[in-house]
Amino acid sequence: MKNSITRWLTAVALAAAGVTLSGCGSETAEPGATNSIAAAAQDAAGPLYPDYYPADYAKLVGDAKKEPGLLIYSNVAEYNWREILEGFKKKHPWVKVATLDMGPSEVFERYYAEISTDKKTADLIVSSAPDAWQRFIAKGAQDEYVSPESDKVPEWSRPFPGLYTLATDPMIIVYNKLLLKPAEYPQRMRQLAAMATADPGRFRNKLTTYDASSHSFAYAIHWSVVDHGNPPGWALMEKIGPLTRPESGGSTMLDKVMGGEYLAAYYTSGITVFPRMNDRGRERIIGWALPKDGTPMMLRGMAVTKAARSPHTARLMLDYMLSHEGQVAAGRGGMTPYRPDVAAKEVPYLTYDAIAKRLGGEQNLIMIGYDPDMVTEYRPFITRWNALFKTKR
Q: CATH top-level class for 169-297+370-389?
C-alpha cells in the first residue's frame, strides 16, 4: 500500500513539474534522462507528503490542480505569511495564492456579505477571533474536513469539526528600556499595575493595550484574562485601566512605545513584536517579557469555508500549515508553533512548549479558547471595561 501511495504522489508531483513518467511503472526513460527523473521523483515523492497520508491523497492533489487558485482571508500580516507561502509554493508550484489581511472580525463579515450575493469569497479563513469563530461554527459555515495531520496536533487545537489552529501566539509586555530603570522592567502584570498605581502622575496615559471594544481579537484577550482570574481579573483592570490609553493595533502600540509616547504596552501580540525586534537599533530601546503571572495564548484558528471555490487547494494549504514543516515555517515568520515535535532550535523565536517551560508550566498560560460564555457575556463585559478604560465607544 505504501508503495502505491508513493507512486501516485510521484506521478502527481512530476506532472506538476512538467515531467512524464509513463504509467508510473518500469518503462525506460529517454537516454540521459534517467538520473534527472529519479532525482525529481525522490524530491517530489519523498518530502512532499508524509507516508501516513491516506492512499487517496493524490486525488486531492489532482483535484486541486483543476482549481483556479487559493484566496485566504486573515488577520496575519504579509511578513508573517512569507515563510509559509514560500514553503507551500515549493510543494505546489502551480497554485496561485492571494492573501487579504484585515481585521479579525472583518474577515467573517466580508465572508458573510459575499456569500449572500454569491460572490467569490475566501476559500480559507485564518483569524484569531474566538467569539467570531463560535458564531461561524454555529452557522455550519466551515467545511468539516478531517486532516491527515489531525492526530499529530493536540486535541485542544481542533475544538470543532473542521476548525484547526495555525499558531498559539503569546500576549506579552513591551516596554521602553530608556524610560524605565532596569529594576522597573515589568515581568508581571501585578508588578506593572503596582508601579503605575504608586505613581499615577508618571504612568497616566503612558500605558497602552488593545481596546477590547474595537475588535474580537482584543475582546477575547481581556475577557480571558478576567475569566482566568490570575492575575486577578477585574481587580487588575480596576487598577491599571484608568491609567491606560487603549489602541486598536499591535504595530501602533510597538511604534509608540519605541517613540516614547508610552512607557509600556501590555497584552500586545508577540507575532507583531518578535520579527520586528531584528530591526536595527530596536533592541537597544525595546524590551519585552512574557507575563509570569499569566501569559494569554491566542489560538489562531483556521478552517476551509463551505463556500470555497477551491476547496481542495484550501485543504492542501491547511494540511501544510498543520504539518511539521508548515509549523516550522509559521515559527520562522514570527508565529508560535505548538506541535510537540517542533523543537525550539528549529525556529528563531518561541514555541508553545518553550513558553510553558519558561513560565514554569502550562498552568501559567491563559488559553484564549472557545468558551461560549465569551459570546453571551460580551455586552456586560464591554460596558464595564469601557467604564474603567474611559473609552468613548
A: alpha beta
One-letter amino acid for residue 121 of the chain? T
**315: three-class secondary structure by DSSP:** helix
Q: How far apart are the first and last CA of the chain?
A: 61
- Residue 391 is predicted with a pLDDT of 66
pTM of the complete model: 0.85
328, amino acid identity: V
Average pLDDT over residues 13-27: 37
What dotted CATH number matches 60-168+299-360?
3.40.190.10
Closest CA to 286 of 277, 274, 295: 277
Alpha helices in the chain (DSSP H): 2-16, 34-45, 57-64, 78-91, 106-116, 130-138, 189-198, 200-203, 216-228, 233-240, 250-259, 270-276, 282-285, 311-322, 324-332, 352-358, 373-376, 378-389
pLDDT band at residue 392 under the 50/70/90 scheme: low
pLDDT at 84 over 80: yes
Asked whether this chain's domains 60-168+299-360 and 169-297+370-389 adopt the same fold, the reply is: yes
CA dist list (Å): 301 to 130, 157, 327, 333, 379: 8, 8, 14, 17, 23
For residue 231, what pLDDT is reported? 83
Domain boundaries, the chain: 2-48, 60-168+299-360, 169-297+370-389
Q: What average pLDDT does the segment 198-209 reach?
A: 97
What are the two backbone dihedrals, phi and then psi, of residue 45, each rounded to the nearest 5 degrees? -80, -25
pLDDT for residue 189 is more than 90: yes
Q: How far apart are CA 132 and CA 220, in angstroms?
A: 10
Mean pLDDT over residues 345-367, rounded? 96
Radius of gyration of the chain (CA): 23
